[in-house]
Design goal:
Layout lengths: L4 E6 L22 H29 L5 E7 L5 H10 L7 E5 L5 H14 L4 E6 L7 H13 L8 E5 L5 E7 L18 H12 L3 E3 L9 H21 L5 H9 L17 H4 L1
Parallel strand pairs: 1-2, 1-4, 2-3, 5-7
Antiparallel strand pairs: 4-6, 5-6
Helix pairs in contact: 1-4, 1-7, 6-7
């Protein structure tokens, strides 16, 4: 695949016991490893479908630009299975490819994937993970629109969207931006990911465009939040003309986890001292 604008999607193969372990008893969750893997696969495929739908709209706005999806996975032995997973779900063609990222740390894996995209002709990269069922076409389009605006900056610049826990769910920059991931995810001082990116950009004198936050799913608390978002997105999609996270919703229904309830609140909020 050769595209000027690449959405670089980091994803593991959805194997039980190796993905979303914080949702399982292997860590502190309640899902069986097989169910966590099914959920992860559904989130991955929903994100891919949203990205491809966003590309179609972006091509209408920017007919001079090309857009493509590059799924980066590891280890190399899983690449064929990832390609088959995408192909069997209808995601194959010139604008979809699979690469393998390598390194001694996640920072190195991230930089290696970026380097492969640059070598294949990318001019702008927007990167994200596959565990974001609340991702919308507007998020993807907004990220690439922001990258296109940064072409006006002499040294390029960065775009990023925070997640819900001091991290980053979407990050990207253009080819000429002098930037990398070193020291971001493995920060020796304990700095979390979002401020690590900002401080690196500040030290390099690079502009950063802030994108709306997009939550991901790592913990059970994240999952509870995502369940409410998935329900809302699926209901709102027809009116919004958007792609809903239908696969994720179906898996959640099959697990009996398609709604979230808390203890009923029977406490009154006395307001006589305010209202009179």
């Amino acid at each position: 695949m050769s595209a000027r604008n690449v959405l670089l999607l980091f994803s593991k193969l959805p194997e039980p016991g190796l993905v979303k372990t914080r949702l399982t008893p292997l860590k502190d969750g309640i899902l069986a490893p097989e169910d966590a893997a099914r959920l992860y696969e559904a989130m991955l495929l929903d994100v891919v479908q949203v990205a491809i739908a966003a590309f179609a709209k972006l091509r209408e706005r920017h007919p001079e630009e090309s857009f493509g999806l590059m799924v980066s996975t590891a280890p190399a032995a899983n690449a064929g299975a990832m390609e088959e997973l995408l192909r069997s779900n209808g995601f194959a063609g010139a604008d979809v490819s699979v690469i393998v990222d390598e390194g001694a740390s996640f920072d190195e894996h991230y930089d290696h994937a970026f380097q492969q995209a640059w070598e294949r002709g990318a001019e702008r990269i927007l990167s994200m993970g596959a565990d974001m069922p609340a991702l919308t076409e507007a998020d993807v389009m907004g990220g690439f629109e922001a990258l296109l605006k940064l072409e006006e900056e002499p040294q390029g610049g960065i775009v990023l969207a925070p997640d819900q826990e001091m991290g980053v769910s979407i990050v990207g920059w253009n080819r000429r931006t002098p930037f990398g991931h070193g020291g971001v995810f493995y920060n020796a001082s304990g700095l979390t990911v979002l401020p690590a990116y900002i401080r690196k950009a500040r030290e390099a004198g690079l502009p950063v465009r802030y994108l709306p936050p997009v939550p991901d799913v790592d913990t059970m608390a994240d999952l509870m939040h995502a369940i409410t978002l998935v329900e809302a997105l699926c209901y709102c999609a027809p009116l919004d003309g958007a792609v809903p996270p239908a696969r994720t919703a179906a898996v959640l229904r099959s697990l009996g986890m398609d709604e979230v309830r808390v203890m009923p609140n029977g406490l009154l909020d006395p307001r006589g001292h305010i209202d009179g």
